[in-house]
Amino acid sequence: MKRQLTCLVAVLSVLSAGCGIGSTGPVPAGVPASGLREPGSATHYAQLYFVSPYGVQAVTREVDAPATPQQALDLLLKGPDAAERARGLITEVPPIHGRLVAKDADSAVDLHLPVPVANMTRGGGLGLSQIICTAANAQAADDKQPPDVNVRVYEEGYGTPWTIRCNAAGNVVPVPDPSVTVR
Predict the structure, then answer these.
(1) What Å distances lie between residue 177 and 60, 150, 152, 182, CA to CA?
(2) Residue 126 belongs to a domain
(3) Residue 41 burial (C-beta neighbours within 10 Å; 0-12, 13-18, 19+)
(4) What share of the chain is helix, strand, coil (3-state, %, to 5)?
């Protein structure tokens, strides 16, 4: 019993000694934090898609206001910035003479390509995936995600638009035409 009491006193002595933190007050440790936005100010981002060794990859860029599909595509056409290139990101969007024109259209995007898709298929069509996914992400509302945004593609030399979506992996997926019956 005496031995147990001695052990208990030793344990209580150690516990009451604390963990070596003195009772000093706050100690200056450098400059205050910076880079934080004022309360109530909003930060907006455009999500662009570039190509990595593993396929199409989304990157986020800060913008002044919510980006429209056209604004996001204009950023995409400029290519990856220095930091993105340093991470190994490239673009497979070929030089496009003329503009990609994207118009908001009721939870969808009408995309007018100035060149036929056949001229954009270098890199296995990754350039087209970059364009579609960038436009879909810019159109996505708070309650929608890119897989729920239809992109209607108006291709030069092809009279009827075709509809496509961007899935969560950054791949394009055709949307079946409801007027066509598949047997």
Answers:
(1) 32, 12, 12, 10
(2) yes
(3) exposed
(4) 30, 25, 45
Q: What is the pTM of this model?
A: 0.71
Strand bridging mode 55-63 / 101-104: unpaired
Number of domains in the chain: 1
Show the domain range for 149: 44-174
CA distance 114 to 124: 19
Cβ–Cβ under 8 Å, residues 138 and 48: no
pLDDT digits (tens, 9 = 90+) for 22-42: 566 666 665 555 555 566 667
How far, in Å, CA of 175 to CA of 133, rounded? 14
In a domain, 100, yes or no: yes
Q: Which of 178, 175, 179, 181 is nearest to 108 (CA)?
A: 175
114 part of a folded domain = yes
What does DSSP say about strands 108-113 and 150-155: parallel, antiparallel, or unpaired?
parallel
In a domain, residue 11? The reply is no
